[in-house]
Design goal:
By secondary structure, this protein is mainly beta. It has one domain. It is 8% helix and 50% strand. The strands form two sheets. It has an 18-stranded antiparallel β-sheet that branches. A two-stranded antiparallel sheet has the order 1-20. It is globular, with a radius of gyration of 18 Å.
């Protein structure tokens, strides 16, 4: 076993051993290997099935969501901070195409630029209790503008949305995450607060505005996977400790 793999494996064992001692405390996750500006941890990504955006009775569905095709994005540049460019493809609403306004995108394509954080997040469990999930991917999209064919509606998406990381505390070649609907409050995501590195809880909700109108709560659903992690030009396994 290579030394780097040994270090990561040892870290995973320590996390499991200390898990019961830290479970009662809020602890922000960390990512290994550590990505820096000089040596970023790059990755590609894709959706596992259809991604949906739901707001005010309207639904936009996109068949694909590859996170690729950009330079300087898709990497954690400061341990838990990074950038991602997601190209949603095959996007439709009410059987008409939805198309982004960035540089004359092809019909049905919407490109999203987002800052991402690996933080903790509060969610509602099956019993209706608010609990802290120790590792989520927080997406802060730059304002996303696109049009849909239903009366040529201009759509603006902004705010914050978080997805649960399912495979934590173990070495992996992929990170799998999913967006969950809040069962108690229809039309929003389950995670409504996230905790940053300073232990501050920050509201996290996705917003949508139609034709420059008021911002309304929105819901994103779907699953995604980040894969092909590389650092220094070589593929690496990753470990999210939480």
């Amino acid at each position: 076993m290579k030394f780097s793999k040994f270090v990561l494996a040892l870290a995973a064992i320590l996390v499991v051993a200390l898990g019961t001692a830290t479970a009662a405390q809020a602890a922000n996750p960390s990512v290994l290997p550590v990505g820096t500006e000089a040596s970023p941890l790059s990755f590609t990504g894709k959706a596992k099935g259809v991604t949906k955006l739901i707001a005010e009775g309207r639904t936009v569905e996109c068949r694909e969501a590859p996170a690729e095709g950009s330079i300087g994005g898709r990497e954690f540049t400061n341990g838990r901070l990074g950038l991602v460019i997601i190209t949603f493809k095959g996007c439709v609403s009410s059987n008409t195409a939805c198309t982004g306004l960035e540089r004359a995108e092809p019909e049905g394509q919407i490109k999203v630029h987002a800052i991402i954080h690996i933080w903790a997040g509060r969610l509602v469990n099956a019993r209706g209790e608010v609990v802290l999930h120790r590792a989520v991917i927080v997406f802060l999209p730059l304002h996303v503008h696109f049009t849909c064919g239903f009366g040529l509606v201009l759509v603006l998406v902004l705010g914050c949305v978080a997805a649960l990381i399912s495979n934590i505390n173990r070495l992996a070649r992929t990170l799998e995450s999913n967006f969950i609907e809040n069962e108690k409050r229809e039309g929003i995501n389950d995670i409504t607060e996230v905790e940053n590195e300073r232990g501050e809880f920050i509201p996290c909700s996705l917003k949508t505005a139609f034709n420059e109108g008021r911002e309304v709560n929105s819901l994103q659903t779907g699953e995604s996977v980040a894969e092909k992690f590389k650092q220094g030009g070589r593929e690496v396994e990753v470990l999210v400790m939480a």
